[in-house]
Amino acid sequence: MIFALRPSERSGRPTLWIPLVRRIREPFKGLWALPGGPLTHAESLQDAASRNLQETTGLAPRYLEQLYAFGGLHRSPTQRVVSIVYWALVQPTEAALADESENVRWFRADRLGELAFDHNAIIDYALWRLRNKMAYGSIAYHLLGEYFTLAQVREVYEAVLDRELDPANFRRQVKATPEIEETDQYLQGGKHRPPRLYRFTGRPGLDPDNRSTP
Amino acid sequence: MIFALRPSERSGRPTLWIPLVRRIREPFKGLWALPGGPLTHAESLQDAASRNLQETTGLAPRYLEQLYAFGGLHRSPTQRVVSIVYWALVQPTEAALADESENVRWFRADRLGELAFDHNAIIDYALWRLRNKMAYGSIAYHLLGEYFTLAQVREVYEAVLDRELDPANFRRQVKATPEIEETDQYLQGGKHRPPRLYRFTGRPGLDPDNRSTP
DNA sequence: ATTAGTTCTAGTCATGCTGACTATAACTAC
DNA sequence: GTAGTTATAGTCAGCATGACTAGAACTAAT
User: Fold this and answer.
1) Residue with the larger pLDDT of the pair B118 and B189
2) Fewest Cβ atoms nearer than 10 Å: which of B86, B118, B154, B176?
């Protein structure tokens, strides 16, 4: 379950997108589904998620975290399946490199049709978690490149939370977080006053899998 | 992974306790471990957690939530094991009914020795989650009975967060949460002014498994 | 070159929550 | 009756937040 920002076709403002793969066999043949695959004996859960993601979409996200283990009885009509779902945030540059083909395509997170299995519910939950984590933790920066303007950070929040934020107040808050570092660089080439560039110096998260990572 | 409140031997104030089971076979024979068991084909993850808990300790907790799926390669020396861990909160009355025997015993959460497998790490993470959820959400009430005094709620917080809280300020905050309902009852029999009793009217949580539960 | 238009950025002000603290009420034990 | 303790209410300063104003800095059009 991967999230990335891409410009909306119409407004050009960044919105949330998700890569899906088309089912090429039953059940749900022809429908779109989350990328995934089996867990082998020689890899950890996180490694398996990375590998499956790499194989299906070519993506290698920096931010990868366990979402939830889904194990309802009727998730697949043919057999009992337990899915340990991970979710990832990728930067725009990475997302642009992703393989796209007849059977792999990006979709807007807020405009999905009916997907295979219980994947609509999984995505709903992932969106809920994303919004939650964004409102508290400092997670939005993993959707941006290394250098960014404060207006870009605000656009991420506005896209994910789906509401407008006051630019001045948002600035004040972001600048108050210690993980945000001011640089001497400015973003040139815009139509108006060039905004200052900032960096994020924090670490991903506090999962059991990521805890000891320095 | 079950949490319950029990009075400390010395001070009598409530503290966090955890039931553990003794390993009766290799690996880690003789060491204490978290209760658990296999997932069968005909039960959901949550049902399996409930059942295994019931069978090993006799407990049937009201609050049960998925903690994390642990799937590192070297969790067990003999074979590859993936554990989807659930955590539960039980009320004191329930906890008192739990089976206790030679091979099932309660331990103070802050005074555990070396446990089997990676269970120390699992408990550390569960404690971290419990403290986190308690600081934000309204979860403490699942460790109490139906009726409780505000001082009892404060004692729960003090036990879990391991620091003292100002009684007056804590009152103000708790009374401000809409899920807390004042009753006309007072707790009689204490040594001093009888405190008013309150009830919790909220719902457990927002897990995928619990979401639709009304 | 000047002006208009836009965004970037800093600052003000009222409001609400929080921690520290004081004061009174209500009960038990002596 | 009085001392001791907890329950409960209230005050006050400090800090974060939302709404808002204003100037700075750049581009594009005139």
Assistant:
1) B118
2) B176
Per the DSSP assignment, residues forming a β-bridge with B14 are B7
Q: Give the model confidence (pLDDT) of A17-53 as tens digits.
A: 999 999 999 999 999 999 999 999 999 999 999 999 9
Amino acid letter, B160: V
The pTM of this model reads 0.93
Nearest-CB residue to A84 (from B69, B73, B122): B69
Q: Which of A44, A74, A86 to mutate to test the interface with B (most CBs of B within 10 A)?
A: A44
Closest Cα in chain A to B72:
A44
Q: What is the pLDDT of residue A211?
A: 61
Query: Is A66 in contact with B66 (CB distance < 8 Å)?
Result: no
Chain C nucleotides with an atom closer than 7 Å to a protein C-beta = 5-11, 18-23, 25-29
Burial tier of A142 (Cβ tally within 10 Å: 0-12, 13-18, 19+): buried
Closest-approach residue (CA) in chain A for B206: A125
Residue B205 confidence (pLDDT) = 67
